Amino acid sequence: MDGVSGSGKSILGPILASFDRVERYRLDCVYEHIAVLHKFGKIDSDAATVLIRLHLDEALYHSMISREVNFRPFDHTGFLNNPFRLRSIVRLFTKDGDAAVERIHRVKPIFQVNCHQMFPAIRLAFLAFGPRVRAVEMVRHPLFVVQHWVQFAWSGTGRIPGISRCGSRAPLAKLFRGSRTDGRRSSCGCHRWTGPSAPSTG
Fold first, then answer.
1. Which of 118, 121, 140, 141 has the highest count of CB atoms within 10 angstroms of its CB?
2. What's the rounded Cα separation, in Å, for the pair 11 and 122?
3. Nearest Cα to 70, choosing from 109, 8, 7, 17?
4. Cβ–Cβ contacts within 10 Å for residue 113, how many?
5. d(Cα 195, Cα 193) in Å, to the nearest integer?
6. What are the beta bridge partners of residue 49?
7. Is a pLDDT exceeding 80 seen at residue 115?
8. What is the mean pLDDT of residues 24-53?
9. Which of 122, 87, 104 is nearest to 1 (CA)?
10. pTM here?
């Protein structure tokens, strides 16, 4: 599942995890890092596909024995914010090694991973896994996305990471003038937000 920060991935992820065989929602940036390196020719296709396959195999194995479960209570990827919590607890006490691999072959779990802005480089995923890949891109109205960035994501910085890096040093929030509909000042401290209020998503 891909999309910019604030597009709603943290809402859809746990919903997808409630389906049969789908693993819990998780955030792992290594997939997008490898994909971008491959996109810009910094790593060849053979090495990139092997790396991404090995990392996914390892992550799935760890998931089957609850080795890397996130127990932070307020994280979107946390134990309490995902379905099948009892399953994660039971897996803590299951056998690892060949027994875990056998469970993977028997259950055929569907591994779910959350990425950010990977779509321009997503060709690597299809090279590595072929038609087994199901890509979901989250799309949200850009004004609501910017509102999320300014109000919640990077409070106090005055800049939007990933956009200010593209060359402009000016805070993106300065493009928006006027007053927020709820009367509160944007958390970046620059200008007030203009436009309708919207609920925050992860």
1. 118
2. 22
3. 17
4. 21
5. 7
6. none
7. yes
8. 92
9. 122
10. 0.67
> Which residues partner with 27 through β-bridges?
114
pLDDT-based confidence at residue 104 (cuts at 50, 70, 90): very high
3-state helix, strand, coil in the chain (%, to 5): 45, 5, 50
Which one-letter DSSP state was computed for residue 114? B
Q: Which residue type sits at 143?
A: L
| Type of residue numbered 41 | G
107 in helix, strand or coil? helix
For residue 14, name the pLDDT band (cuts at 50, 70, 90): confident
Give the residues across from 110 on adjacent strands: 22
Which residues on neighbouring strands pair with residue 2, listed in sequence order?
137
Please state, in angstroms and rounded to a whole number, the distance separating the CA atoms of residues 93 and 121. 38
Rounded to whole angstroms, how far apart are CA atoms 82 and 76?
8
Which residues touch 162 (CB under 8 Å, ≥6 apart)?
Answer: 117
List Cα–Cα distances, 81 to 65, 75, 112, 137, 148, in angstroms.
Answer: 19, 7, 15, 21, 20
Q: How far apart are CA 125 and CA 48, in angstroms?
A: 10
d(CA 133, CA 150): 33
Helix (H) or strand (E) holding 62: helix 45-64
Q: Amino acid identity of 169? A: R
